[in-house]
Amino acid sequence: LAGYVGFHNLPNQVHRKSVKKGFQFTLMVVGESGLGKSTLVNTLFNTSLYPGKEAKELSGETPKTVEIQTISADIEENGVKLKLTVIDTPGFGDFVNNEDSWRPILENIEARYDAYLEQENRVNRKRIVDTRVHSCLYFIAPTGHSLKPLDIEFMRRLAGRVNLIPVIAKSDTLTEDEIKAFKIRILEDIAFHKIQIYQPPQYENDDPETIQENRDIISRIPFAIVGSDKEVEVNGKKVRGRKYPWGVIEVDNEEHCDFVKLRQMLIRTHMEELKEYTNEVLYESYRMQKLAGVGL
Ligand code: GDP
Ligand code: MG
Is the pLDDT assigned to residue 248 strictly greater than 60? Predict the structure, then answer.
């Protein structure tokens, strides 16, 4: 596929180290149900992580509480293994009272820090398993207006504990101009409420190519995404996308949406950085607060 990037493209040194240890990455998806979270995860890793999901949904049962689902898969690409864990948070937004629906999600993130802390405190620390959440995609409904109060509440609660990456869900339902204006509104809301979202760092001594690559990624935040696990035909060529009477929106076309840039950031250019930030800043601050008995 055009513009397809994979973790085998990581810088050599990181790559060699990680090949030996095996890649391990934990991603959480958060947002109202029906915004395309499960579809995006499938699109992102080009594999179906949700076998039998359809059957479950057809039963018409609405969970009474926010049920958190953890799915792990070993994915191989060009002989390189990635152990991917996805934490899906179905159901939120479906309840009459959504006020505290962020709580079990935050608790899940913190329980993973606790599990890590507990391992660090063991006598034998050789085999620490890192199950911490390395990034959290927050799905924003494509309303074209501004963030909902529940979005603001969620993001405020999660920011500071996890690398928060806002995405505009189902961006194929908005026009290019609507997306542009919506992105500005979202960033204004985020700034106004002082919500700390993940910012790819910029280093002056990076090579010009990396600097430009980073700028391109940053300029797309919040990523306007389109998910699809189906292939459609465009001029006799099969592509992943969504078909409309007026044409096809291609998932892997950078002019159609920001999916490629998001995938590039998560899996190619910033995977190690996201893990480092989780360890050195987010986890460290949780650990310090916990030890000091502050606000927990
Ligand atoms: P979830 O509840 O957030 O996990 O949402 P799902 O992934 O189950 O998707 C809900 C519905 O939205 C399904 O019918 C999908 O086919 C559809 N959907 C998923 N992603 C997109 C998208 O990017 N654009 C559009 N238009 N529909 C989508
Ligand atoms: Mg789902």
Answer: yes
